[in-house]
Amino acid sequence: MVESVSADTFSLDYGDGSVTVEMDDGDRDADAYKLIPGDKVNVVGMVDDDLFEMTTIEASSVYVEKLGTTFYASAMDEDDVRISVTTPVVISETLVQGTVDSVGDDQFTVDTGADKLVVQTEGLGYDPLDDEGYQKVEVGDRVSVTGNIDAAFFGGLEFAADSIVILEENGGETAS
């Protein structure tokens, strides 16, 4: 939900905190519609987590629920960004897609192509990393993970998975 709005940014309340979303006024056609606090939005973009700077999302599109309209950013405006995420209208849920790079006891690393993100699995109610059960996440699998992303104590990002879908299993077979 939009908390506050300025010329080229707005503050997004995602349920567990707030993050600044960067999108130029011209990209969201501010002359026709200005975002206002309380607007429910769906932000698709890239997390920009530069060292010693505040984490922001560089929006590639912003869907405004009450308008049923999506505003798209100009490709000319994009900065060097790190992790591809989608923030749906469901508050505090984030979607990350990529290839599993490594697997540990209760976590795995997803390579998004722009960066790597550690996904914590202990809150799922089952273990997708063991040899039991239907789902087994392995190195090389292409996955889509929903969950919550938070800043870690020492400056990194932590991602707690709520659900995992294997889009393509290691070896190129599509999962059903």
Task: Describe the overall structure.
This protein is mainly beta. The chain folds into 2 domains: 2-87, OB fold (Dihydrolipoamide Acetyltransferase, E2P), CATH 2.40.50; 94-174, OB fold (Dihydrolipoamide Acetyltransferase, E2P) (Beta Barrel). Helices cover 0% and strands 48% of the residues. The chain contains no helices and 13 strands. The protein has strands at 2-5, 9-13, 18-22, 41-48, 56-64, 69-72, 83-87, 94-103, 107-111, 116-120, 142-151, 157-169, 173-174. Strands 1, 2, 3, 4, 5, 6 and 7 form a 7-stranded mixed sheet that branches. The chain has a 5-stranded mixed β-barrel with strand order 8-9-10-12-11. β2 and β3 form a beta hairpin. It starts with a strand and ends with a strand.
